[in-house]
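Researcher: I'm comparing several assemblies side by side, and this is the next one on my list. It has 913 residues spread over two chains. Same procedure as the others: predict the full complex and return the structure.
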Amino acid sequence: MSIIIDRRLNDRKKSAVNRQRFLRRYKKQIRRSLGDVVSERSITDMDHGGEVKIPVRDISEPTFRHGQGGDRNIIHPGNKEFAPGDRIRRPSGGGGGGSGDGEPSESGEGEDEFMFSLSREEFMNLFFDDLELPRLARNALGDIREPKWERAGHTPSGTPMNLEITRSLRNAMARRIALGAPLRRELEALEKSGGSQQEIEALRERLKKIPYLDEFDLRFRNKTQVMKPVSRAAMFCLMDVSASMDEAKKDLAKRFFTLLYLFLSRKYEHVEVVFIRHTSDAEEVDEQTFFYDRKTGGTIVYSALKLMHEIILDRFPTDSWNLYGAQVSDGDAFGADTEKSRAMLQNKLLPLLRYFAYVEVPDSGERATPLSAVYRQIVDPRFAMRCVSSRRDVYPVLRELFAREAA
Amino acid sequence: MSEGAPRDYLSTGAEWSFELIQDYDLAIAEIAHDEYGLDTYPNQIEVIASEQMLDAYASLGLPIGYPHWSHGKEFIRNEQRYRKGAQGLAYEIVINANPCISYLMEENTMPMQALVIAHACYGHNSFFKGNYLFRQWTNADAIIDYMVFARSYVLKCEERYGVDRVEDVLDSAHALMQHGVDRYHHPTPLSAQEEEERQRERAEHDWKQFDDIWRTLPTVKHARNRRERDGQRFPPEPQENVLYFIEKHSPSLEPWQREIVRIVRKMAQYFYPQGMTKVMNEGWACFWHYRLLHDLYDRGRVNDAFMMEVLASHTNVIFQPGFDDPRYSGINPYALGFAMFQDIRRICEEPDDEDRAWFPDIAGGDWRKVLDFAMRNFKDESFIGQYLSPKLMRQFRLFEIADREDNEHLVVDAIHNEQGYQQLRRDLARQYNRAYLIPDIQVWDFDIKGDRALTLRHFRLNNRPLEDEDAGEVMKHLARLWGYRVVLETVDEDGTVVDQREQGGN
């Protein structure tokens, strides 16, 4: 007689840990593929899961096996016209005698890329893993505090969600033993001395009535709020939307900022993002306007930097904020603007900032733009500049700019 | 059996229910046990969903396994192909355990469930219990316990030494997994409890042996020069179980690492009989599901629609495309195995002159006894060598291609004719010889007194070389487990070393 068991309600994610191991091990290869995936996406889809590919070669598991060459006899089915002694031209492509030689070829389907999909969560994790805001410091320690939940032992009351089962059952057991001990002792004595059956029964009854679990036994995990100092950071996003920034360049700029924004909002609980766009004058805008509005005009880079400086002085005292800036422009600036901008950035802004990244989206082939020419003079560990000329570059550049510093 | 048996259908639709599964199981068991005397472990039939089937795939068909990225890869690969529709899931997975666990997928129709029950719960099950390789090599009572032990041990190591270090050992051991089997020594039976005990003792022993004073002794320089060999190699005889040798003798592994190598070795050992009996095992199971379900039909317990569905599926499974068919990927073990068992029965029941000449012992015998004997005492290689009949060679239209390195053409060496039968049978059997599939690599020498280098020898068969790139990778894994220099010599059939590769230790 066979036993029949319904296992359909069992855990269906038994292999989840193996999947995590796989992703963990091939992080590097998957990330390489992520860059390509992102470059093909529209900006609004940036934070979805997706299909990634890694070369099958990279994930193959080597074993000792026979290679090409040597002598062998192979038996095949389905002979139609062959007679002993017939000679057949060797099939080209190194297939040798086909796959009939019984060699284990798991990936015999001949795909050279291993393709699979990642959930949104996995995607974002891999995407922003190992990135951080450089030189983030806990400033004004003790000044800014925020409540955080912390564990604080156990309490006798609480919500079922917080029930501590082991402890509750342990209490119950202790109580049952304690309450039952005198009764059992009495019972034992009676049984030895041959007391009346009725008394024995009565005692047994009382023993049975000790409840298995009493409300009194329950213990719940307790949590209290504790004020903790936090580090606060603000990121300034500066985008050039002047007429020389054509659609393609704006697309690159927006892609960069979208990724930066996703990175910040995902990685840090407390990062304020300030969006500044500029033509011949600068204005602070909200996220929606920043990414989707189509304003355009002339170019004065200085205006944006000046506005940023004003906002800092106005709203972000540097002793309690970590300040960062990222600027994207095509580097097209005129006359005194470039020099004024450099002076502003180098002398006034950088001393207030932890890090400032300049990303240029130049016309193709053009190397030294007016703005990059002057920015290049800035030598400061807090300043970095990179060039993005195609969608493919956006993600690697972001990684370079915000790579975690080796501890 | 009898003509016009009363029609007493177990069910008629595609829907299955637990009651119906039970009914079918009882009906099939009755025929299998009472009529044919199949000896089986008790069955445990588990109904699972497709995701769970994918899970089971990923852990090599076992219900539990230790975590490793390669299992994740396998899971993702199968899932992807399943979603794309490129691959249906296996109808069944059956685990060589006592009780014998078989999985039924909830998506299957009732006829398919019945097919799986007949195939797995009575076919494979009786093979696991009867075949000598399984009897000698695996312990059906202990495998599940052992896997629980292995999993918790690996998890504990991960916690203590970090996922990366554990993964390194597992990766390296997996690369040598095929060389973790002794073909001629029988292993001791598995026992999770003994394993734990032994493992604890080993750790304790190592702890007691640790003596810090050795560290203060001056090291001997140029150890290699001291290699005064007394003409003796160690081990004195070559050993084919490379993983075992590493586990026992690696100069650099820590106790927990040896333990992990051991776990991988035990897994290799568990799967070894399955690799050696693929044709027989599947053939046996197909023979019995075909037989048992036909008997159900003959007794009027199932209807025509049921039989049509079963036969459609059966035909797919035992389909053998010809060599020039785009679907061809070698000889289908289901097809060959099924045909051979059917053929043995035919030889017993209706032998012709050819059969009497080729199989004097069994022609006209009792097919149940002959089949049972064949199932118990052979593996693929010997089974084919013994029982492949000229009739089957003609039916499969088998032919042999000789592929010689020094000949730019392939030559047809033998075909299904009078002159070719013996050669075809001998060479097809050889194709299932382990040495033909997996390069013969053995531990040759461990330079204990010198630089501790480990030398393996690859005994080349018919000049067939190793796949170069993979061999290089495996050597790195070997060096990681050994910790010192490792050498792989390829020797010719006459014993001369023709090729050598080396990998430095770390």
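Model: For your comparison table: Residues 221-229 of chain B have pLDDT under 50 and may be disordered.
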